[in-house]
């Protein structure tokens, strides 16, 4: 962990992606150098959970309707790429005299690409939903499906008899259809009910634990039936991709996914055998570049099956020209069963690690490389995606869709202003979404939820719930995304006015003071005060943060509940007797700021003295009006009268 932290910090400083840092940390900590982990394969299962979470997150992005819309890409381009690439890379070792069983496995391993690196890098670059990336993702999805026949065939290739292989593949196909059908049924009918009940408990820990449990159970089920764990997690995520809990699920799973994905890349680096790399350096480097060039050409050829734009096809090929993480799994299994030699397996791992290390740079420059190959400029929107709606801009994000949030939404709708609401009440979200309201289920204080609501391009983020600590978190997360979006916070009272402004709020609206201000406006209007003067007064009060609306005179019926005694502001009249300690002193000589109270006024001989002069000398029978918290007012009165 220490090596990974140092490596990521160093690579970030020199502007290299974290994936390379994890690979470097793995090589450094592996058995070839520091030997921190003498047996890195022991960490592989834990690291594979990172891929499970990654595919679960990907499933949330690619819901069933979206996947059906992309079926021509998945089963057209994906199938074509897998067949073409496997055939080509099977012929090369076969030509070199390697047995056909080993050649088929080598061809399959080299045909696969890295789902983990491509999706993680695309997510960090913010290009996951553009057309050329979705083309690459479609191919990756089919490759993940294609892993299953190889895992089944490897033990059988070590035996003799073609009938057993055909029967095993047929049996695997039936198992796959059953498991996929079962998971899709559970995901459609059972999982929404489960998450609805969990959400009603309003327990964040339970929601997170349930999310992790569902992802692992789905992966474990497919693994039990001989399929890939990642496939089960993807199906579970895909079934939940259309639910109202999509964004919260994605936000909850992300920290675990990122940590375990980092661990996965560390284990990949550990598998690099430096002795094999040194002894066969020329062959490996030549093989990596030949492999990448061939895969780019073959992916482009497969993309012609659906008449994809040339730049899209070449760009997808550049993204997918590395060797995938499942190639290591297939190579290790083939070595165990004697289909591949340990030297052949080591060569595949070395080529895979080097190609993975080059992938972040290739992805950053994939469009540029594709444009140079085609020799023309991009003539379409680079961020356009298959069937996706335009993201909202200059909209209002309403955090909390209760009474206040819904009232604001209705007024915005009447003015034709777009908005997105975020709420944690599952029943309210369900009812609102059924009515066609743009409501996201999630915790507005989480950065990922605000990103999914397009906070970066929003005009205003409005916090309507009266939870000051959570409101401050919303402000902080919004400011971490953008400094141009205004943040407005609604509170019931003005207790935390200053702290909310200090946290970064542009406007704080205390409901009680605003209600009083509206009432005062009506009273002044009926009293004959011109409307222009009323509006000026209202603006002045808001600008002065409701200075004239703070504090009140307590009475016998004033209730001070536990926890509010240090929040209320009282106004109290202190009558200065002839023996009062402060008689004969100037107001400026009394340290009211130290007593943490404010002077509201001074009455002398029955007349009110507005804004008393600081040089004014206090006399007997003066009435000094002070304001502050109850305990402070009490201590200030004792100080004024008794001097202690």
TrEMBL record:
Compartment list: Membrane
Family annotation (SUPFAM superfamilies): NAD(P)-binding Rossmann-fold domains (SSF51735), TrkA C-terminal domain-like (SSF116726)
Keyword vocabulary terms for this entry: Antiport, Ion transport, Membrane, Potassium, Potassium transport, Transmembrane, Transmembrane helix, Transport
Major subcellular location class: membrane
Domain RCK N-terminal: 393-510
GO terms for cellular component: plasma membrane
The name this protein goes by in its record: Potassium transporter
Organism in which the protein naturally occurs: Alteromonas marina
